[in-house]
Amino acid sequence: MHCTGAVYTIKILDDGTPQKYLDKIVEQHPEVLISRSALASQKAQQITTTSSTVIKEIPVELWVSAAKDASDYFLMLEDDFWFTAATNLDELETAMRREKMICLKLFWLGNPMLIHGKPLQKTDSYIQYRPALFTKKPILYRLIFRVNRYKIRKVLALFKLYTLEKALRYYSIYTVAGAVFQKDYFCALWEDHSVTVDEGNQLQNAVSYLYKHQDDVHFGHTNEEVLQTGFTSSATNNPKSTAAHLDMFHFNKCLNEAWLAGNLQAMEGYPNDFPSESITTLLFENALPETQPEHWRLWMHEFKQQYRAIGCNIN
């Protein structure tokens, strides 16, 4: 609806979606290509049965392999992102090649710390910037922002060497998704990565990459955010403090089954998230003890608060 420019391919990297949902996607969008992780079938079975025991390994091999097979520049999205404005992919790629940008963000949740730096140039579609970081030396970064043993973090904070604001600035050179990546840079972010989520390792790799290439690489972001993300659901079943009564797997299954039956429209509420009233109605209709509407509303509030606490603008 919004992407223009080159003839591009949409690839879904799946890590556990039950087959009937994938079949529905292919039925609606036959041009989409789907690649599955090595553990996708086992995870899909756990999701189907809403098992309380889940495989927590993330499919790093699938993601890096897909990146290596992709074009020199590619757009990476999470499954809960959507476009809200016109985006010319040709123009972005041309600009990134010309200006040696290795990451151009389309999304930062209204948080200026995540795109913090000195503007180098501004055009009608993007801003190129030089990140303003406390240090670009990997060893110092690791000592100040990663090591958190023996009360080191408290001592550094006492002398204002460590602050949350300084730590967040490093996201100016890193993001999980919601950006156009240069292939080599994206693959470098995942070097020496385990099979569990570890953003700290990726940030460390980003600092190391920047240190090695110094002024040969740049970063950028679109003038305005052209993506939004949802806070209706989550891919994990981790308890969120007082909202621990909500079972996310049962909740997601409820939404998925409604979508499969044609009772949940993807564009409802667009360009904003799904309307709370529609979700609440759906939960009342299902009447499951694991997905009480009041528990879901509390869970969503606490989910948003995590991002508000670090300066994100969450409506």
UniProtKB/TrEMBL annotation:
Top-level taxon of origin:
Bacteria
Q: What is this protein called?
A: Uncharacterized protein
Q: Which organism is it from?
A: Flavobacterium kingsejongi
